[in-house]
Amino acid sequence: MSILNKHETTLGQKQYHIALAPGDIGEYVLLPGDPARSDRVAKYLDNGVLMANNREHRTFTGTYKGIKISVTSTGMGCPSAAIAAEELINIGAKTLIRIGSSAALDPRINIGDLMISTSSMKNEGTSKFYVPDCFPAAPDFEFTHELIMTAKEMMDESEQKVYIGVSATDDAFYGETPEFLESLRKLKVMNIEMEASALYTIGHLRDVRVACICGCSGNLTNSEVIYTKKNERLAEAWDKEIQVVLETIARFEEAKKAKK
Question: Is the pTM value of this prediction over 0.70?
Fold first, then answer.
Protein backbone atom coordinates (compact mmCIF):
# COMPACT_ATOMS: atom_id res chain seq x y z
CA MET A 1 0.00 0.00 0.00
CA SER A 2 1.32 3.45 -0.98
CA ILE A 3 -0.43 6.45 0.59
CA LEU A 4 -0.77 9.36 -1.82
CA ASN A 5 1.33 12.49 -1.34
CA LYS A 6 -0.88 15.13 -2.98
CA HIS A 7 1.83 17.80 -3.10
CA GLU A 8 4.38 15.57 -4.83
CA THR A 9 1.81 14.08 -7.21
CA THR A 10 0.51 17.43 -8.46
CA LEU A 11 3.83 19.32 -8.58
CA GLY A 12 4.56 20.65 -12.08
CA GLN A 13 1.38 19.21 -13.58
CA LYS A 14 -1.80 20.81 -14.88
CA GLN A 15 -3.66 21.70 -11.70
CA TYR A 16 -7.05 20.20 -10.89
CA HIS A 17 -8.87 23.18 -9.34
CA ILE A 18 -7.35 26.23 -11.03
CA ALA A 19 -7.05 24.45 -14.43
CA LEU A 20 -3.61 25.91 -15.13
CA ALA A 21 -0.32 24.34 -16.18
CA PRO A 22 3.35 25.38 -15.92
CA GLY A 23 3.97 28.38 -18.18
CA ASP A 24 0.43 29.74 -17.81
CA ILE A 25 1.30 32.19 -15.03
CA GLY A 26 3.98 34.64 -14.00
CA GLU A 27 6.05 34.37 -10.83
CA TYR A 28 3.96 37.18 -9.35
CA VAL A 29 0.26 36.41 -8.82
CA LEU A 30 -2.37 38.78 -7.40
CA LEU A 31 -5.11 37.04 -5.40
CA PRO A 32 -8.54 38.71 -5.18
CA GLY A 33 -11.39 36.74 -3.66
CA ASP A 34 -14.09 37.64 -6.18
CA PRO A 35 -13.62 36.25 -9.74
CA ALA A 36 -14.98 39.55 -11.12
CA ARG A 37 -12.00 41.37 -9.64
CA SER A 38 -9.66 39.26 -11.77
CA ASP A 39 -11.15 41.13 -14.74
CA ARG A 40 -10.53 44.40 -12.89
CA VAL A 41 -6.84 43.56 -12.50
CA ALA A 42 -6.56 42.44 -16.13
CA LYS A 43 -7.42 45.96 -17.29
CA TYR A 44 -4.15 47.19 -15.76
CA LEU A 45 -2.04 44.53 -17.48
CA ASP A 46 -0.58 44.79 -20.97
CA ASN A 47 -1.84 41.99 -23.22
CA GLY A 48 -3.87 40.40 -20.43
CA VAL A 49 -5.23 37.04 -21.55
CA LEU A 50 -7.83 34.86 -19.85
CA MET A 51 -5.96 31.63 -19.08
CA ALA A 52 -8.60 29.67 -17.17
CA ASN A 53 -12.01 30.05 -15.57
CA ASN A 54 -12.74 27.05 -13.37
CA ARG A 55 -14.90 26.98 -10.24
CA GLU A 56 -14.13 30.17 -8.25
CA HIS A 57 -10.68 30.50 -9.84
CA ARG A 58 -10.52 32.96 -12.76
CA THR A 59 -7.02 33.68 -14.07
CA PHE A 60 -5.53 36.25 -16.42
CA THR A 61 -1.87 36.60 -17.36
CA GLY A 62 -0.23 39.66 -18.89
CA THR A 63 2.64 42.04 -18.25
CA TYR A 64 3.30 45.23 -16.31
CA LYS A 65 6.42 47.20 -17.20
CA GLY A 66 7.70 44.09 -18.94
CA ILE A 67 7.15 41.78 -15.94
CA LYS A 68 4.95 38.71 -16.43
CA ILE A 69 2.15 38.93 -13.86
CA SER A 70 -1.00 36.89 -13.26
CA VAL A 71 -4.18 37.25 -11.24
CA THR A 72 -6.18 34.32 -9.87
CA SER A 73 -9.33 34.66 -7.81
CA THR A 74 -9.43 32.47 -4.71
CA GLY A 75 -13.09 32.54 -3.73
CA MET A 76 -14.09 33.28 -0.14
CA GLY A 77 -12.34 31.79 2.86
CA CYS A 78 -9.15 29.95 3.69
CA PRO A 79 -9.93 26.49 2.25
CA SER A 80 -10.34 27.64 -1.37
CA ALA A 81 -7.56 30.26 -1.00
CA ALA A 82 -5.20 27.56 0.26
CA ILE A 83 -6.01 25.31 -2.69
CA ALA A 84 -5.37 28.15 -5.14
CA ALA A 85 -2.08 29.05 -3.43
CA GLU A 86 -0.81 25.46 -3.38
CA GLU A 87 -1.66 24.90 -7.03
CA LEU A 88 -0.18 28.21 -8.16
CA ILE A 89 3.03 27.40 -6.30
CA ASN A 90 3.03 23.96 -7.95
CA ILE A 91 3.32 25.61 -11.38
CA GLY A 92 5.83 28.33 -10.63
CA ALA A 93 4.36 31.17 -8.53
CA LYS A 94 7.04 32.78 -6.32
CA THR A 95 5.14 35.78 -4.90
CA LEU A 96 1.46 35.80 -3.95
CA ILE A 97 -0.26 39.06 -3.03
CA ARG A 98 -3.76 39.02 -1.62
CA ILE A 99 -5.74 42.07 -2.80
CA GLY A 100 -8.90 42.02 -0.78
CA SER A 101 -11.79 43.72 0.91
CA SER A 102 -11.78 43.87 4.68
CA ALA A 103 -13.74 45.29 7.59
CA ALA A 104 -11.85 47.64 9.90
CA LEU A 105 -11.90 47.57 13.69
CA ASP A 106 -9.64 50.58 14.21
CA PRO A 107 -12.10 53.50 14.56
CA ARG A 108 -9.82 55.83 12.60
CA ILE A 109 -10.18 53.84 9.36
CA ASN A 110 -12.80 54.87 6.80
CA ILE A 111 -14.36 53.02 3.89
CA GLY A 112 -11.99 53.24 0.95
CA ASP A 113 -8.79 53.43 3.01
CA LEU A 114 -6.09 50.81 2.44
CA MET A 115 -4.82 48.39 5.10
CA ILE A 116 -1.58 46.42 4.89
CA SER A 117 -1.21 43.42 7.17
CA THR A 118 1.96 42.77 9.18
CA SER A 119 0.61 39.51 10.63
CA SER A 120 -2.71 37.79 11.17
CA MET A 121 -4.55 36.00 13.97
CA LYS A 122 -5.50 32.48 12.89
CA ASN A 123 -9.20 32.46 13.71
CA GLU A 124 -9.68 29.75 11.07
CA GLY A 125 -9.21 26.03 10.68
CA THR A 126 -7.18 25.65 7.49
CA SER A 127 -3.77 26.63 8.86
CA LYS A 128 -4.17 24.08 11.68
CA PHE A 129 -3.72 21.34 9.07
CA TYR A 130 -0.25 22.77 8.35
CA VAL A 131 1.20 24.08 11.63
CA PRO A 132 0.45 24.11 15.37
CA ASP A 133 -2.09 26.69 16.46
CA CYS A 134 0.60 28.65 18.34
CA PHE A 135 2.72 29.05 15.16
CA PRO A 136 2.60 32.68 13.90
CA ALA A 137 1.13 33.74 10.56
CA ALA A 138 3.22 36.51 9.04
CA PRO A 139 3.85 37.84 5.52
CA ASP A 140 7.18 38.15 3.73
CA PHE A 141 9.03 41.05 5.36
CA GLU A 142 10.94 42.38 2.34
CA PHE A 143 7.99 42.48 -0.05
CA THR A 144 5.63 43.84 2.61
CA HIS A 145 8.11 46.62 3.42
CA GLU A 146 8.24 47.58 -0.27
CA LEU A 147 4.44 47.43 -0.40
CA ILE A 148 4.14 49.78 2.58
CA MET A 149 6.64 52.28 1.18
CA THR A 150 5.02 52.26 -2.26
CA ALA A 151 1.50 52.61 -0.87
CA LYS A 152 2.44 55.55 1.33
CA GLU A 153 4.15 57.31 -1.57
CA MET A 154 1.37 56.70 -4.09
CA MET A 155 -1.40 57.63 -1.64
CA ASP A 156 0.35 60.68 -0.20
CA GLU A 157 -1.88 63.18 -2.02
CA SER A 158 -5.01 61.03 -1.83
CA GLU A 159 -8.02 61.42 0.47
CA GLN A 160 -7.68 57.71 1.16
CA LYS A 161 -5.18 56.78 3.85
CA VAL A 162 -2.88 53.80 4.35
CA TYR A 163 -2.87 51.88 7.65
CA ILE A 164 -0.48 49.14 8.77
CA GLY A 165 -1.21 46.63 11.50
CA VAL A 166 -2.23 43.21 12.75
CA SER A 167 -5.19 41.54 11.03
CA ALA A 168 -7.50 38.72 12.03
CA THR A 169 -8.47 35.97 9.61
CA ASP A 170 -11.90 34.57 10.42
CA ASP A 171 -13.95 31.64 9.11
CA ALA A 172 -17.52 32.72 9.84
CA PHE A 173 -18.68 36.07 8.45
CA TYR A 174 -21.99 35.92 10.32
CA GLY A 175 -20.53 34.26 13.40
CA GLU A 176 -18.74 37.41 14.55
CA THR A 177 -20.79 38.56 17.54
CA PRO A 178 -20.45 42.05 19.03
CA GLU A 179 -18.67 40.46 22.00
CA PHE A 180 -16.20 38.70 19.72
CA LEU A 181 -15.52 41.88 17.75
CA GLU A 182 -14.96 43.81 20.97
CA SER A 183 -12.42 41.20 22.12
CA LEU A 184 -10.46 41.73 18.89
CA ARG A 185 -10.71 45.49 19.15
CA LYS A 186 -9.27 45.38 22.67
CA LEU A 187 -6.29 43.50 21.25
CA LYS A 188 -5.80 46.41 18.80
CA VAL A 189 -6.54 44.24 15.78
CA MET A 190 -6.72 46.57 12.78
CA ASN A 191 -9.09 44.63 10.53
CA ILE A 192 -10.79 41.33 9.77
CA GLU A 193 -10.65 39.38 6.52
CA MET A 194 -10.93 35.70 5.54
CA GLU A 195 -7.79 34.43 3.77
CA ALA A 196 -4.47 35.95 4.88
CA SER A 197 -3.36 33.68 7.72
CA ALA A 198 -3.64 30.52 5.63
CA LEU A 199 -1.79 32.17 2.75
CA TYR A 200 0.98 33.34 5.10
CA THR A 201 1.30 29.83 6.52
CA ILE A 202 1.55 28.17 3.11
CA GLY A 203 3.98 30.81 1.86
CA HIS A 204 6.26 30.14 4.82
CA LEU A 205 6.20 26.37 4.35
CA ARG A 206 6.59 26.47 0.56
CA ASP A 207 9.31 29.16 0.55
CA VAL A 208 7.37 31.75 -1.45
CA ARG A 209 6.67 35.40 -0.67
CA VAL A 210 3.17 36.33 0.49
CA ALA A 211 1.73 39.76 1.30
CA CYS A 212 -1.73 41.21 1.86
CA ILE A 213 -3.33 44.59 1.18
CA CYS A 214 -7.05 45.23 1.60
CA GLY A 215 -9.47 48.02 0.88
CA CYS A 216 -11.71 48.94 3.79
CA SER A 217 -15.29 47.85 3.05
CA GLY A 218 -16.71 49.08 6.34
CA ASN A 219 -15.88 49.80 9.98
CA LEU A 220 -17.39 47.39 12.49
CA THR A 221 -16.44 49.50 15.50
CA ASN A 222 -18.25 52.55 14.12
CA SER A 223 -21.05 50.47 12.52
CA GLU A 224 -20.17 52.16 9.22
CA VAL A 225 -21.14 49.44 6.75
CA ILE A 226 -22.70 49.28 3.27
CA TYR A 227 -24.46 45.97 2.66
CA THR A 228 -27.50 46.88 0.54
CA LYS A 229 -26.13 49.13 -2.20
CA LYS A 230 -23.02 49.54 -4.32
CA ASN A 231 -19.99 50.53 -2.26
CA GLU A 232 -18.39 53.17 -4.48
CA ARG A 233 -15.52 54.00 -2.10
CA LEU A 234 -14.60 50.33 -1.81
CA ALA A 235 -14.50 50.03 -5.60
CA GLU A 236 -12.08 52.97 -5.66
CA ALA A 237 -9.94 51.20 -3.06
CA TRP A 238 -9.77 48.08 -5.24
CA ASP A 239 -8.35 50.13 -8.10
CA LYS A 240 -5.88 51.87 -5.78
CA GLU A 241 -4.60 48.63 -4.26
CA ILE A 242 -4.18 47.05 -7.69
CA GLN A 243 -2.10 50.02 -8.84
CA VAL A 244 -0.05 49.97 -5.64
CA VAL A 245 0.68 46.25 -5.91
CA LEU A 246 1.69 46.41 -9.57
CA GLU A 247 4.05 49.31 -8.88
CA THR A 248 5.44 47.46 -5.85
CA ILE A 249 6.22 44.47 -8.05
CA ALA A 250 8.03 46.70 -10.54
CA ARG A 251 10.11 48.33 -7.80
CA PHE A 252 10.81 44.99 -6.12
CA GLU A 253 12.07 43.53 -9.40
CA GLU A 254 14.24 46.60 -10.02
CA ALA A 255 15.78 46.26 -6.56
CA LYS A 256 16.48 42.58 -7.14
CA LYS A 257 18.29 43.34 -10.38
CA ALA A 258 20.33 46.08 -8.70
CA LYS A 259 21.59 43.56 -6.12
CA LYS A 260 22.94 41.19 -8.78
Answer: yes
